[in-house]
Amino acid sequence: MVDDPVHPDPENDPVFQYLTGQRNASQPALLAAFEQESVAALQALRPDRDIAYGSHPRQCFDLFRAPGAKATIAYFHAGYWQSRDKEQFHFLAPPLVGAGFDLAVVNYPLCPDVTMEELTAAARDAIPAVHAFISIGRNEPGRVIAAGHSAGGHLAVELALTDWRARGATREPVAGVVALSGVYDLQPLIATPLNEKLRMTAQMARAASPIFRVRGGMPQALFAVGGLETGAFQTQSRNMCAAWRAQGNAAKALVVDGADHFSLLRGLTPGAPLFEAVAALAAG
């Protein structure tokens, strides 16, 4: 076998594991389809738009409502904490709303405009804001599930690990976690071009890695990853699930066969194993 001239040892090359090895020739067409479907979802469902949850221009979310919603899923988008936008992920709304869930699609500040620490702190403000908005006209507080994909999966876990009591909450505001193909140990990213905008030192990367801060008393969680993703991404999900369980928390691991980093999201359609796992967790 001839070694890859660019990646002679892809298993140990973080650039391959987190960037080039995650790419698939079908992804540009898939992302274009997501954007077209997102436009159609806005036209069909007419969500509440650009609800502010902080002073930064990107601290806002769109809320798609389901009559008699069982729970609200707060979804944080992919983009390695430095790109993409909520507008590209509205296509997730029709199946989730159709299954009886509100969907808040959340934007957050991006690096290098903010540091990773500031980004995570800003994203935390979304949860009480979503609670406040969905509580209007309701007699009971709603269930909010922190969910996200890739960088958003990292943020969903961070929201669950937040010390909400110290922030004045009278109850835990995150009822569950759905983390799709997330990165939970950020230290390998220092050796990749991604760090040009993330600007993390080794100390900062470890501090931003939720896998080292899991404790007991966390909500139930789902950690999913595509079967076609690189070994590093599969290890990230497997290790995060193991860390969750090691502290006595309920967690489910799911590998979606035949899915890459973005086609994984096609599993969020009724009847698919990923959708059914998300719906079961969100419904409690």
Task: Explain how this protein is built.
With 284 residues, the protein is of the alpha/beta class. It has a single domain (48-283), classed as Rossmann fold, CATH 3.40.50. It is 34% helix and 16% strand. It has ten helices and eight strands. The protein has helices at 14-18, 27-45, 93-98, 116-124, 126-134, 151-161, 195-198, 202-207, 231-246, 273-283, and strands at residues 48-52, 60-64, 71-76, 101-106, 144-149, 176-180, 220-226, 251-256. It has an eight-stranded mixed beta sheet with strand order 1-2-4-3-5-6-7-8, sandwiched between helices. A hairpin with a 7-residue loop joins strand 1 (48-52) and strand 2 (60-64). It is globular, with a radius of gyration of 18 Å.
Secondary-structure blueprint:
Layout: H1 14-18, H2 27-45, E1 48-52, E2 60-64, E3 71-76, H3 93-98, E4 101-106, H4 116-124, H5 126-134, E5 144-149, H6 151-161, E6 176-180, H7 195-198, H8 202-207, E7 220-226, H9 231-246, E8 251-256, H10 273-283
Parallel strand pairs: 3-4, 3-5, 5-6, 6-7, 7-8
Antiparallel strand pairs: 1-2, 2-4
Which properties best describe this structure?
single chain, 284 residues, alpha/beta, Rossmann fold, 8-stranded mixed β-sheet, 10 helices, 8 strands, 16% strand, globular
Write a compact overview of the structure shown.
Helices cover 34% and strands 16% of the residues. With 284 residues, it is an alpha/beta fold.
SSE run:
HHEEEHEHHEHEHHEHEH
**Coarse morphology:** globular
Query: Can you give the helix content as a percent range?
Result: 25-40%
Average of the residue pLDDT scores: 95
The class by helix and strand makeup works out as alpha/beta
The CATH topology annotation reads as Rossmann fold
What is the rounded distance between the termini?
50 Å
Q: From the 3D coordinates, which CATH architecture would you assign?
A: 3-Layer(aba) Sandwich
Strand order of the largest sheet: 1-2-4-3-5-6-7-8
Radius of gyration: 18 Å
Question: Quick one: CATH superfamily?
Answer: Alpha/Beta hydrolase fold, catalytic domain
Poorly predicted runs are 1-5
How many individual domains?
A: 1
Tally of helical runs: 10
